[in-house]
Amino acid sequence: MGLTIAQKILQDHIVRGNVNVGEIILARVDLAFANDVTAPISIDFLKRIGGKIYDKQKIALIPDHFTPNKDIKSAEQCKTVREFAEQNNIPHYWEVGEAGIEHVLLPERGLIKPGMLVTGADSHTCTGGALGAFATGVGSADTGFAFATGMLWFKVPHTIKFIYNGKRGKWVMGKDLILYTIGKVGVSGALYKVMEFTGPVIRNLPMDDRFTMCNMAIEAGGKTGIVEPDDITRKYLSERGVKDGVFYKSDEDAEYDDIIEIDVSNIEPQVAFPHLPENTKPISEVAKEDIKIDQAFIGSCTNGRLSDLRIAAKILKGRKKDKHVRLIIIPSTPLIYRQALKEGLFDIFLDAGAVISTPTCGPCLGGHMGVLASGEVAISTTNRNFVGRMGSPKAYIYLSNPAIAAASAVLGKIGSPDEL
Amino acid sequence: MKGRVWKFKDNVDTDVIIPARYLNTSNERELAKHCMEDINQNFAKEVKKGDIIVAGENFGCGSSREHAPISIKASGIACVIAKSFARIFYRNSFNIGLPLFECKETDRIREKDIIEVDTNTGEIKDISTGETFHTLPLPPFMQELVRLGGLEGYAKKLLKEI
Fold first, then answer.
1. What CATH number is attached to the domain comprising A238?
2. Where are the domains of chain B?
3. Greatest Cα-to-Cα distance within chain A, rounded to the nearest angstrom
4. Range list of H helices, A250-386
5. Strand, helix or coil at A308?
6. For A191-226, what is each residue's pLDDT tens digit?
7. A116-164 pLDDT, tens per residue?
8. Among A262, A283, A313, which residue terminates a domain?
């Protein structure tokens, strides 16, 4: 019996055990990272078990969640992380101004490569699977453990293969493919399992969209999302100066828990209704419902990349947001911020009445820079619409791609760019 | 373990277990004060040491925040029983020494029932109804984690071995 990409990467890193599905193994970790919310607990854990770091090159610390510091307590958390990074000369630590959202920054810096085993104390660590790495979200104690030992325990997961066929329609992005998929399998449809995204549509899908898809694997309960690395991956890596990496492919006779084929030809842009990402509807149905919005947010580790901002700008060019709506745009990293500025996207956004913030996770998790009040409705390019996720537990969050979010900001209600 | 049941539904996510607005601290007492407040406002006020959470599918889905099991444990909850758990919540709980049990029959356990969990046999006895349920056996590695009191104990053991 052959092996899946996920099994091959785990096998390549195994210290104790075998890559039999369901078995718990101990494996070497190539990169373990944490953020300002999760790292303080990891640092505390590390201290309790002796405080010695296994390999500081294999650690990354990214203050991104509540930065620039939103309040005194957050400032204290960031201080803990900063002092730890400085005392231990951690090379992969970035201060505000250089830091961006971890799952966008790390690939951009060439720190996530095909074939790596990556863990992050953040559930959206699965984003890195878009580069053909095994990247999975773990806890803070786990991360402290990996800092100290260079290893971690894993349950060898099943893999579900998703094959995307057909032709992507207008305004249909990676976000729509993954929302549609979550709508189909449910929020626990891939619990403990790897989601391997494949098929002709994925082979032609740009890296930014692949990142978006893998990013939301956790929203179906997945351990990670993964895309077989190819020439698109290679081009992305070479543009970032990465020359190494192990390009694994799943064997033809690999064992899959399930194989799900999806014809994308009839998929429209999707909107996930409150309060679960699985509550998806096609935009044509949503547009009929006349859902008025108070806020539109374009950003996050899911959809704050350059192509997301470009598509938003394409729609917002020469238009104004609805008077009532707050349109918030947050580029995910300083590099994306600068490029968007160079391309003139900021002028378009500002002319449209948007506010542009420094890179941060901020509003996605109700931190700052756009927290919702009770009864308010938001369209958001983020990943979760749980109760209380973006602020008040009485707010309503609808998830979409950036084209829909931009068009909705102009319309004042959830709708498609075709309605403009 | 014997305690009173707090009942929850499917897909209880970590954003309702401990909302992100309280993640500017990792102080467990502080976190316990806000545990479950967006889904059950009485929980933090009325929960007693030894009480047990019983839930449906996919308990603990969403973010990786270890603050979620920390807030539950610091509330005094002895263990969580659910039909299934989200995977990061699962590992975080065992890592910090909060025991979890998977049981497919949680629909038959009611809010405020008194139940007794035999951690050796995995048997749940609902004293209020007289019914008995079984939990899925823990994998040997998880049993070792429990025996060592969580990941800290395991780490200390492993660091001596390598």
1. 3.30.499.10
2. 2-161
3. 61
4. 283-288, 300-303, 306-316, 334-342, 345-351
5. helix
6. 999 999 999 999 999 999 999 999 999 999 999 999
7. 999 999 999 999 999 999 999 999 999 999 999 999 999 999 999 999 9
8. A262
Q: Which value does ipTM take for this structure?
A: 0.95
Q: How many residues does chain A have?
A: 420
- Whether A74 has a pLDDT exceeding 90, the answer reads yes
Same domain, A251 and A322: no
Q: How far apart are CA A70 and CA A88, in angstroms?
A: 26
> Angle A376-B89-B16 (CA atoms, 0-180°, nearest 5)?
25
Residues A361 and A313 in one domain: yes
Cβ-based contacts of B141 with chain A (< 8 Å): 24, 153
CATH, domain B2-161, list 3.20.19.10, 3.40.1190.20, 3.40.50.620, 3.40.50.1100? 3.20.19.10
Q: How many alpha carbons fall within 13 Å on the CB side of residue B67?
A: 31
Per-residue model confidence (pLDDT) at position B162: 83
Tell me how far apart the alpha carbons of residues B19 and A238 are, in angstroms, rounded to a whole number.
40
Higher pLDDT, A161 or B162: A161
How much is the pLDDT for A362?
97
B49 CB near a chain A CB, below 8 Å? no
Residues A170 and A131 in one domain: yes
Q: Which residue out of A42, A43, A49 would a mutagenesis test of the B interface target, given it has the greatest number of B Cβ atoms within 10 Å?
A: A49
For range A327-334, the mean pLDDT: 98
Residues of chain B above pLDDT 90, percent:
93
Residue A198 shares a structural domain with residue A294: no
Share of chain A above pLDDT 90, in %: 100
| Among A262, A297, A324, residue at a domain's last position | A262
Residue of chain B minimizing CA distance to A54 = B159
Q: Is A73 on the interface with B (CB under 8 A)?
A: yes
Q: How much is the CA Rg of chain B, to the nearest whole Å?
A: 15
CA-nearest residue to A221 within chain B is B86
CB of A21 less than 8 A from some CB of B: no
Q: Tell me how close the Cα of A121 comes to any Cα of chain B, in angstroms.
A: 6
Residues A146 and A11 in one domain: yes
A318 and A290 part of one domain: yes
Comparing alpha-carbon positions, the chain A residue that sits nearest to B142 is A24
Is the CB of B24 less than 8 angstroms away from the CB of A74? yes
Per the structure, the count of domains in chain A is 2
Q: Does B88 touch chain A (CB under 8 A)?
A: yes
Q: Is B75 on the interface with A (CB under 8 A)?
A: no
Tell which of B35, B59, B61 to mutate to test the A interface (max A CBs under 10 Å).
B61
Domain span at residue A88?
5-262
B31 residue type, one letter: L
Residue type, A52: K
Binned at pLDDT 50, 70 and 90, residue B119 comes out as confident
Residues A258, A274 within the same domain: no
